[in-house]
Specification:
Blueprint (H helix, E strand, L loop, with lengths): L1 E7 L11 E8 L2 H14 L3 E4 L5 E3 L4 E8 L4 E4 L2 E5 L4 H10 L24 E2 L2 E2 H4 E8 L4 E6 L11 H4 L4 E9 L13 H7 L9 H14 L22 E3 H15 L8 E2 L4 E3 L2 H7 L11 E3 L7 E3 L5 H19 L8 E3 L4
Parallel strand pairs: 2-5, 3-5, 4-18
Antiparallel strand pairs: 1-2, 6-7, 7-12, 8-9, 10-11, 10-12, 13-15, 14-15, 16-17
The chain binds flavin-adenine dinucleotide (FAD).
Family: Belongs to the MurB family.
Function: Cell wall formation.
Subcellular location: Cytoplasm
């Protein structure tokens, strides 16, 4: 177990933002993770779990407690069953399942961060989300002070949400298990229209699993959604806001606002999101409220490749980023009456 004091956290995040932690522990085995968590909890010390730091906005003042970097390793593929240690790099694990010809997570290629964080917000992209293939999470339950195994149903997955996100101080994920599909080297049915178009197939078709992964990586790279240290458009947390889900009354009011502002024939993106609920697109709202790609003049700006990514152009502070995020939230609310909610987890700050 490696322990450092007054440790900078910015280099551990993809935003490269945030002040130091009083103490930083890097744990390389499950036992080390559990020991570090137990020790902090028994001492009453605030604890911040860090995987790849790709969904974290840490305040400029840093973290007055123990930051625990989960750097465990373990990749076990047994037939179609996959078990990953929390510290495994997610996108590398996806690549290995694709090399093995298995389907189920190929469209989640290129998502930065650790395997252990994938259940936290039920990561998803291009028509797949981990909720579909994840079978079990082995976690340390800080309340019961024991290691537990949760089924997929126990995780209460929803769109970019889970039991872990709802109750963030309870579980530390140690291992994640998946059931993949052996479709003879073919992908899962391609669900997302943009991916189907890129592959020249119809939604619902299957393609060679490696082709699906490549297509997704190409689409992502074009939007600055694959990490590249030389490209400031990727100094981000990916999508900064979740897509709003509106009930029928909210959606009707929203539609009125859209048509008042943009003309009676305007049809905003709308997807069914369960009984009496409609999901619309945060990127569309941001763009139509006047915050287009590259928006901003300061050190934090909207990505030049994707309206939904707020980025650090190199010398931003967390306050710069939050000022931009607040400006976008206020602008979208004024224009359309919808309040955007941040997707990344904030530490010591809020929008
Ligand atoms: C360029 C870019 C593109 C992205 N694209 C997508 C996308 O397409 N889809 C998507 O869903 N997300 C996307 N993201 C967001 C991010 O990559 C995911 O949310 C990812 O799962 C975060 O993993 P991480 O290890 O970096 O988590 P961190 O940022 O380190 O942590 C995020 C949260 O999870 C908690 N956490 C981390 N590890 C554990 C653990 N072992 N146990 C308990 N809690 C833990 C942390 O405490 C924190 O609350 C993108 C981010 C970037 C930078």
């Amino acid at each position: 177990m490696q322990v450092t004091h007054d440790a900078p956290l910015a280099p551990l995040t993809t935003f490269r933002l945030g002040g130091p932690a009083q103490r930083l522990i890097t744990a390389r085995t499950d036992d080390e993770v559990v020991a570090a968590v137990r020790e902090a909890d028994r001492a009453g010390t605030p604890l911040l779990i860090i995987g790849g730091g790709s969904n974290l906005v840490i305040g400029d003042k840093g973290f007055d407690g123990t930051a625990l970097r989960v750097a465990t390793s373990g990749f076990v593929l047994d037939g179609t069953r996959l078990e990953l240690a929390a510290g495994e790099v997610w996108t590398d694990a996806v690549a290995r399942t694709v090399e093995a010809g298995l389907a189920g997570v190929e469209c989640l290629a290129g998502i930065p961060g650790s395997a252990g964080a994938t259940p936290i917000q039920n990561v998803g992209a291009y028509g797949q989300e981990v909720a579909t293939t994840l079978t079990e999470v082995v976690a340390y339950d800080r309340r019961a002070e024991e290691t537990v195994t949760l089924t997929g149903a126990d995780c209460a997955f929803a769109y970019r949400h889970s039991r872990f996100k709802a109750d963030p101080d309870r579980f530390v994920v140690l291992r994640v298990r998946f059931e993949l599909e052996d479709a003879g080297g073919m992908s899962a049915p391609i669900r997302y229209a943009e991916t189907a178009r890129a592959l020249g197939v119809e939604p619902g078709d299957r393609v060679p699993v490696a082709a699906a992964r490549e297509a997704v990586l190409d689409l992502r790279a074009g939007k600055g959604m694959v990490l590249d240290p030389d490209d400031h458009d990727t100094w981000s947390a990916g999508s900064f806001f979740t897509n709003p889900i509106l009930d029928d009354a909210e959606y009707a009011a929203f539609l009125d606002r859209v048509r008042d502002r943009l003309g009676p024939d305007t049809a905003p993106p709308a997807y069914p999101a369960g009984e009496g609920r409609t999901k619309t697109s945060a990127a569309w709202l941001i763009d139509k409220a006047g915050f287009t790609k590259g928006y901003g003049t300061g050190p934090a700006r909207i990505s030049t490749k994707h309206t939904l990514a707020l980025t650090n152009r190199g010398d931003a502070t967390t306050e710069d980023l939050l000022a931009l995020a607040r400006e976008v939230v206020a602008g979208v609310r004024d224009a359309f009456g919808v309040t955007l909610v941040n997707e990344p987890v904030t530490v010591g700050v809020s929008l």
